[in-house]
Amino acid sequence: MLYAIASILIGLVLLVWSADRFVDGAAATARHFGMPPLLIGMVIVGFGTSVPEMLVSAQSALQGNPGLALGNAYGSNIANIALILGAASLISPIAVHSQVLRRELPILLGISLVALVQLWDGHLSRLDAAVLLLLFASIMGWSIMQGMRERTDSFGTEMDEEMRSNVMPIGKAVMWLVIGLGVLMLSSRMLVWGAVTVAQSLGVSDLIIGLTVVALGTSLPELASSVAAAFKKEHDIALGNVLGSNMFNTLAVVGIAGSIQPLDVDNAVLFRDMPVMIGLTLSLLFMGLRFRKESRINRFEAVLLLLVYVGYNGWLVMTALS
């Protein structure tokens, strides 16, 4: 079991490091090929920060661990809103300026409800997975069109300023892109093996391990980038990281895992985890779209989000011990 714990810890460190290198390399490469900053933020960065979840859930599905695959995806969504946005908003209250992000908030709620309906029969079939991937492709296509039309959106402006402060030659960008992806694949295998081994040794379900340790670990890239953006008062980047990641997790991560291997769904996912995820998404929709001069997630709301995250994980721990 010591080897398994070491594999989790080393895998998490490598996962965070390689995800950062992969995102930097992918964003710089896209910049060299003339992609608008808004699209880089919405598509490249959103995809890049969700690659850890994607690889971990795919590995879990291949090895026949559906609880780990779903727990990783939905647990990451919960961590993204409650922990990451909570921490970022505590540092600097997140003001929602971007019209693109404001439009994506109700879409995120909608796809979360679609996911709940799909899982209601206790099974995620390959057809369900195909629907999720089709939705993902449609939303990405819509986002690209919106990004091409609205190059002056505040989210794009923040991304442009961020990328200008970190210019990278094309050769170095491609190098980090390739190295980052390779290490991501290796570290995801280490993390999945370690997590499954620990779960089996402790008699804890792989769902609980996926919702806690693995979800937190694969969300660390979003945590690092959103907290850094909050310190720089790049509010749209902090929010964009979370929205993009949650959309990728709900549609692409679960869709890819389900297309590899149909997944049986534990009742706890339906009656414990999905309501928490949808409730947090609904609260984010309210905070981001409420009618006042400037919508923002204030520090009081940030504390509430963090308390929800602590309470939810306490609930999971009690469930595991009972």
Shape: globular
CATH homologous superfamily assignment: NCX, central ion-binding region
| Low-confidence segments | none
Percent of residues in β-strands: under 5%
- Biggest sheet strand order reads 1-4
Under the CATH scheme, which architecture would be assigned? Up-down Bundle
Which class of secondary structure composition applies to the elements? Answer: mainly alpha
Mean pLDDT comes to: 81
CATH third-tier fold name: A middle domain of Talin 1
- Name of the top-level CATH class: Mainly Alpha
Kindly state the percentage of residues in helix: over 70%
Number of helices: 11
Written as H for each helix and E for each strand, in order along the chain, the element string is HHHEHEHHHHHEHEH
The biggest beta sheet, please? 2 strands, antiparallel
**Ends apart, CA distance between termini:** 22 Å
Radius of gyration: 18 Å
What is the total tally of β strands?
4
Write a compact overview of the structure shown.
The chain is an all-alpha fold and 322 residues long. It contains eleven helices and four strands, in the order H-H-H-E-H-E-H-H-H-H-H-E-H-E-H.
Write the layout of secondary structure elements.
Elements: H1 2-32, H2 37-62, H3 66-91, E1 94-95, H4 99-119, E2 123-124, H5 126-149, H6 154-164, H7 170-202, H8 206-231, H9 235-260, E3 263-264, H10 267-289, E4 296-297, H11 299-321
Antiparallel strand pairs: 1-4, 2-3
